């Protein structure tokens, strides 16, 4: 009898242990599911906030330039939306170097600013030109299909314009590190041979052939002071060479970043063209040329 009672007690203890394990597992599962649900809600809210930031920045473009809340200089500004804050930056793409239309000299200046010595620029410039020109005849130090295949790559030269700045990574000789240094100064939406110095970042201004560091630093300081006063940016001192853009305000790169208090984060970047007959650009006569999320 005592032996049977002992066996029964062991069985009960095992059952209690098993129930405790099941209960603990169930509690852990509920905790995980609750955390996942919060994360999903946080990410969804962050995305909605970031998209609202892009829309608000687009609406801001309807105002006359002196009255805009977000100057097109690429500097992030906080925008309060309800209880949340969205960081918004706007940049006029005329202040960037167009991969498709920039002169060889301007691209060479950018390579120099990115740390490529003069004796290493020729092959990279030729490779970029061979990528974007329509023929399959290589320049002196360039690269066409056979050169890409010989390098073990599964593709050849595009022989057409760049559709996106990220394509530069595919050009033979452009390393990942070099691309990272060049990309912030580039666009494919300016359509101009030069740049607008009033909205160009420091790296772009330093890429302009014939300018020196002291001149650029003094100009940037003057531009900063005038922006703080709410005045229009000063023109860059004459430099010649035809490296200045003839038009600006045609397209803007907008970035919105949101991090709700309850968690989650989202980043959206869009390029919005003004004065076009397209749709979907949040405001009349505009279109979205590019849309990227969670970069």
Automatic annotation (TrEMBL):
Pfam families: T2SSK_1st (PF21687)
Domain T2SS protein K first SAM-like: from-to ranges: 100-189
Gene3D superfamilies listed in its UniProt record: EpsJ-like (1.10.40.60)
UniProtKB keywords: Cell inner membrane, Cell membrane, Membrane, Protein transport, Transmembrane, Transmembrane helix, Transport
Database matches in PANTHER family: TYPE II SECRETION SYSTEM PROTEIN K
Family: Belongs to the GSP K family.
Descriptive protein name: General secretion pathway protein K
